[in-house]
Description:
DNA polymerase, domain 1; Rossmann fold; 2 domains; alpha/beta; 8 strands; six-stranded parallel β-sheet; two-stranded antiparallel sheet
Amino acid sequence: MVETATTLVLLDIDGTLVSGGPAKEAFEIAMLAVYETHGAIEGFDFSGKTDPQIARELLLGSGFTDERIDASLPDLWERYLAELEARLIDEPMYLLPGVPELLDRLDAHPAVVVAIVTGNIVQGARLKLASVGLAEGLSIGGFGSDHEDRNLLAPVAIARAEEACGVTFARECTVVVGDTPRDVACGQQAGTRTVAVATGRCDAASLRATGADRVFQDFLDTDEVMRELVRGTMP
Ligand SMILES: [Mg+2]
């Protein structure tokens, strides 16, 4: 099955596959515990940013130096993951409309490989996906723990998927799927096709303005979404 794969679908997590959950609260608690401030977190624009980028922007805004920030990032992630894991038990993420059907169809398609591109650090991504039963099938990807700059994450995910599958994916047969302009930019920078979905914090109009190849309101029309995602696949 994998030998014939020609399409690589790179999925974002928050706002694309799942929503809800206690991540913001867990992050706030961890920031207070480790840096004694969470900075100007109310009204902060999290969308499409990597976890380390979020921490750095909030802390630089509170007068911290990069050196001071970097010195305690390992402690921040340790505390964040502990808080996230504990809180997900009572407040799991939930799957967005159409996502279970879409993932089933992608999984069943003989020419498709699915991987993750997310700003979440890898262990946070696994905890979030595990809370909706998806961690097993979505283990390969590029994560916020690989690079602070989201634009560098698609190439990481592509390289890992190619290594895992033993195939090379043409960029026109690779598609980055996300819910923010930063997801679209990440795909455009990597030379992939881009699909955006308005199930996160960004509306369809703002996503269309990015020049994404296709914008969906949601993933409920599984047939149409599949047609778009496998468009570059050779017969
Ligand atoms: Mg997202």
